[in-house]
Structures are given as structure tokens and as C-alpha cells.
Amino acid sequence: MVFQNSMRSFAIVLTACVVTSSVHAQSDLPWKKHVVFEGAACTTAVAGDFTKDGHIDIIADTGSGVTRLLTGPDWKEILLDQDHRTRFIHSEAMDVDGDGDLDYVGACYNPGLILWYEQPDAPTREAWPRRLIDDQIHGIHGVIAGDVNRDGRMDLLATSAQPKPPFPNSLAWFEAPEDVRSDSPWRRHIFAVEDAPGLTHYIGFGDINGDGRPDAATGAKGGPTDSSGMGEWFAWWQAPEDPTAAWQKHALPAPQPGATNIHPADVNGDGHMDLVASRGHGTGVIWFEGPKWKQHVIDLEIREPHCLAVADVDGDGDTDVATCAFGSQCCVWYENDGAGRFRSHVVGRDQEAYDIRVVDLDADSDLDFLVAGRQSNNVVWYENPRRGLELEDAPVPR
Fold first, then answer.
1. CB 208 within 8 A of CB 183
2. Using an 8 Å Cβ cutoff, are 140 and 89 in contact?
3. How does DSSP classify residue 54?
4. pLDDT tens-digit map of 255-307
5. CB-CB contact of 217 with 204 (8 Å)
6. Which long-range contacts (CB under 8 A, 24 or more apart) does 146-155 make?
């Protein structure tokens, strides 16, 4: 993870404050900001009913290897783990052991480590057993759950972004052992074998080419920390009939400085899968129109939109886009008109982010935004003012 120097950070904050004073004030924006945690840099947060009480909870990395369970609706803090080796850069919530409740998966960057924490019978009072998934891939910036081999059990996909053995510049997926509570690591399959150089980031997952098999996509940021000089791209990998074999790489058009996120979605409703992407270590949010991958602009100027989510935010049946940019220090969603034309809505300002999730946090049947704020030293959520409410347009801070 590369942190901006103090002068750059100061310039970003100053710019955001100046822009805020010249456009709509925060009080004019209808999304309410709720602070869940503050006091430490947070790089990832996931939500779900981790306590089986009907309320949505949050598990977050809260700096220095401290993982906290924040129980809803009052966000009481419960320490899950404290280990300097477990500074999670990304995470997932999934039912790992198939017992009907949510467990937690956390991934460390370098040296790489993926762990899962089993939800106990009394999750607020008992320790969560910690078990190994893998410790051999390095540069894990993205981890995502999905049924890769279509056997009805959830697998995990992850980046191995560092040019470091034994699996440099690669992508992997992991198959759980029959007894997931054993001490055995998961079965590792390297599906992009040393053909993902340039410091890859997050992974998208879905059937991109319409053959019934789920594929994967990622982006490589490149830039001064990329010793290979082979980054600045987006690409997707086509899954073969046997997903344990190597997958076929398909590069997407044009150099993409700072590429970080990419997710499959049918953006324009034409029945073909498209790809929505952000340049989280650069500028801009874009989408590629399948199947020929023509590039379209969503927002060309937003700075460092490091996180990205695709979901039907306003409930009108099409795919919208959300991000919280640590350069522009604003949370924004882009309203799709159904044909792939987008209008931006600022949700909140003066908020830096590393990770965003779209989830109904208050159980009112609309989608809210959960944001892990790294340099903002917090975890916050923005409350959706209900679907169908017309939001006032506001310029995105640049």
C-alpha cells in the first residue's frame, strides 16, 4: 500500500474544502452520514448479520492488526483479533462452513495471508476460531467470493500482485477442503499464471462472455512502484471448461493509468455483459461496452476513486455505480438512465475511503453505502433517503 506524502495530502484536503464552500453545502445533501468507528485507519469493512439477532453488523480492519466486530444498531465494539500480522487490506463475508451463518474472511497484502474466522454460537461473547486459507500468494489486494467450479459451494478468488515467488504476477482461486474446520490450507489454483503484472488490485467475477461459466477481471495500477513497468491496464480472464486449468487473458482497450477496480454488469440493457471500472490510483470512472469493449466515460475527472461498487441504487431496474474517492474526498453515486448514460450525485464530502460496500444497513429495503476511511480514520455509512426520492444534482469535487 502506498501512502501519499504530507504535502500532497494537504493539497487534496485544501482543494476539497475550497470546492465544498463553492457548491451545495453538506446539509443540502439528503444522504445522512453515520459514524460507526473512528480513531484508526480503516482499509476494509464488510456488513452482515454476524450476531444472528436480525440487525446488520460490521466487521472492519481498524489498523495495526486490530479486527473489530461492530454490532448494530448501536455499533458496540467487540475485539475479534489483534495481531500485527493480520493487517487486512480487503475482506469478504460468507458462510464458509455451510452452517447457515456468516463468517469473515480477511486478506493481508505482503507477505500474503488469507484467513477465515468462524462465527461461534455466541458471537459477541466467544472467541472466533481463526483458520488458514493460504499463505503462499503475495500482494493480495483483492479477494472475492464466488462459485468458480459451479459445485454449489463458494470459493475465493484473490490477486497475487507482487513479483515475488512462488506465484508472481498471478491470479488465484481457492477451493475449500471437505472439512473446512481442519488445519489444512485450501486447494490453490493459479488461473492467471504470471500474466498479470503491474500491481493488480481488486477482482470482478461473473459470466462475461455468456458461455455459462463465471470469468474474472482485474486492473493493474502501474506507476512508480511498479518495478515491471507493465501495469496501467484492465483485462478479463475467460474460464475454460475445467476451471483448474489456465484461463485465457483478454486485454481491454487503451492504457489505464492507476487501474484498480472492474466489475461485470449489463450497463445498457442490451443483453451483453459490460465492464465498469475505476482508476483508483489515477483519475476517472469508465465502462467498457461488451462484446467489443468500446470505452465510455462515467466521470473523467474524479481523483483516485480507489473503491467501486455496482448495484441498483435507486431501485429502477438498471445498474448504477458508486465510489468514494480518496483524492477528491467525496462519496458519489452515478445514476444510470438504463442506456449507459450517467448522472452524478454527491452523497458526502470530506470523507476519504479505501473500500466501499453497497448494502441495506438499516433494513428499510433500500441500499446504503458502507465506507472504510483510511486517511479519514473511520468507518461510516451513508443512509439512502429511500428509493424514488429525486436527488439534487451536485458537482463532484475535483
1. no
2. yes
3. S
4. 999 999 999 999 999 999 999 999 999 999 999 999 999 999 999 999 999 99
5. yes
6. 146/205, 146/206, 146/214, 147/214, 148/173, 148/175, 148/189, 148/214, 148/239, 148/243, 149/175, 149/243, 149/244, 150/213, 150/214, 153/98, 154/94, 154/95, 154/96
Residues 6+ apart with CB under 8 A from 116: 96, 103, 104, 105, 106, 130, 131, 133, 180
> Rounded to an integer, what distance in angstroms lies between the CA atom of residue 252 and that of residue 238?
13
Rounded to whole angstroms, the Cα distance separating 360 from 32 reads 14
CA distances from 147 to 144, 191, 206 (A): 10, 14, 10
Residue that is written with C-alpha cell 459470466 in the block: 207
Query: Dihedral sign, CA of 346, 349, 354, 359?
Result: negative
Cell of 230: 507493465
Q: Which residues pair with 90 in a beta bridge?
A: 107
Distance CA 68, CA 379 (A): 11
pTM of the model: 0.90
Round to whole Å and give the CA distance between 68 and 65: 10
CB 362 within 8 A of CB 369: no
C-alpha 303, offset from chain centre: 17
Nine cell digits for residue 279: 482508476
Q: Is the peptide bond before 111 cis (omega within 30 degrees of 0)?
A: yes
